[in-house]
Amino acid sequence: MKPIRLALVGLGKIARDQHLPAIAATPGIALVAVASRNARLDGVECFASVEELLAGVADVDAVALCTPPTPRRDQALAALAAGKHLLLEKPPGAAVSELAPLKTLAENRGRTLFAAWHSRFAPAVEPARAFLARHRARRVTIIWKEDVRVWHPGQDWIFEPGGLGVFDPGINALSILTTILPEPVFVVGAQLAFPANREAPIAAELELATGSGLPIHAAFDFRQSGEQIWSIAIETDAGSLVLSAGGARLSHDGQALVDEPEREYRGVYGRFVELIQTESCDVDIVPLGLVADAFMLGRRSIVEDFAW
Ligand SMILES: NC(=O)c1ccc[n+]([C@@H]2O[C@H](COP(=O)([O-])OP(=O)(O)OC[C@H]3O[C@@H](n4cnc5c(N)ncnc54)[C@H](OP(=O)(O)O)[C@@H]3O)[C@@H](O)[C@H]2O)c1
């Protein structure tokens, strides 16, 4: 079978760190073009915008959008209207309501739309889900604390409206949480800390719950120095399950069950190829809805200015 001819839009940090190596390692898909306003890539056709790319290369089958969430809606509409399969980086949009029109357009055109939640492909996620299908969770504590200056250097978009602030990484924890728990989650309340000079929170505390009354607390912070923490601890009726390192590790009562190198984006591109081959869509907006609810229910505090 001919490989899927892929174009990548937004050649920034995640495109270079993860997408390019994962595409190269995935059978059935090949990168043929890039659109980025300021960056070029050797060996493929380069354009300044998705519109120029779509007009310039006729035989692109699929597009991966690696731009920040705010410009992504118009790029997605253009790619789907041109009949391309589409992969959206997380979060799938800057607003929850953007996704339904994209899904409708994809379905009407018979194309794949994939809202990729990369953290769901971390190696600890499926074993954690299987454990929690067998054992009852009693309490969940999420700690997702990283240094924004290390992981998102100079990315001013992250503190703009639609950039999600600390929910940009925090939504990864929510994407895992909503995969591993056997029942839906809702937001009870939130505390959001906004720097006085920015439009998005730099830290957040969330109270969440499930219909059966499982209490879930999440602490997200972009001001973390020293140890970087991406962990979900679940007290269960069969001991303590801890997912750490963003999902690369899993332990049960202190004993390691999983400890593997990061390989999430191999999973993302494997799934994208599978969805295209089976003419399917995968668009889960639940994690984005939880973030939106945190903004709707959150109490706001103003904290000191943020500068890079
Ligand atoms: N950084 C991470 O660790 C990470 C991990 C997983 C997922 N993600 C997700 O991936 C997405 C991109 O993040 P990133 O870290 O790669 O950001 P980034 O380094 O800022 O790269 C995004 C690229 O998109 C282009 N771009 C920026 N603003 C644009 C605009 N208004 N219109 C069109 N193009 C624009 C820029 O390239 P040009 O200037 O050349 O156009 C930029 O280099 C985000 O949704 C983020 O949540 C990031």
What's the short version?
With 308 residues, the protein is of the alpha/beta class. It has helices at residues 13-25, 50-56, 69-81, 99-109, 125-134, 148-151, 167-180, 264-277, 286-297; strands spanning 4-9, 29-35, 45-47, 62-65, 85-88, 113-115, 137-145, 185-195, 203-210, 215-221, 229-236, 239-244, 249-252, 255-259, 298-303. Helices cover 32% and strands 30% of the residues.
Question: What would the keywords be for this entry?
Answer:
308 residues; alpha/beta; Rossmann fold; Dihydrodipicolinate Reductase, domain 2; 2 domains; nine-stranded mixed beta sheet; six-stranded parallel beta sheet; 15 strands; 32% helix; binds NADP nicotinamide-adenine-dinucleotide phosphate
Question: Can you give a write-up of this model?
Answer:
The chain has 308 residues and is an alpha/beta fold. It folds into 2 domains: 4-116, NAD(P)-binding Rossmann-like Domain (Rossmann fold); 120-261 and 292-303, Dihydrodipicolinate Reductase, domain 2. The chain contains 9 helices and 15 strands. The chain has helices at residues 13-25, 50-56, 69-81, 99-109, 125-134, 148-151, 167-180, 264-277, 286-297; strands spanning 4-9, 29-35, 45-47, 62-65, 85-88, 113-115, 137-145, 185-195, 203-210, 215-221, 229-236, 239-244, 249-252, 255-259, 298-303. The strands form 2 sheets. Strands 14-13-12-11-7-10-9-8-15 form a 9-stranded mixed β-sheet. Strands 3-2-1-4-5-6 form a 6-stranded parallel β-sheet, sandwiched between helices. Strand 12 and strand 13 (249-252) form a beta hairpin. NADP nicotinamide-adenine-dinucleotide phosphate binds at residues 10-15, 36-39, 66-69, 71, 89-90, 118, 151-152, 155, 157, 168.
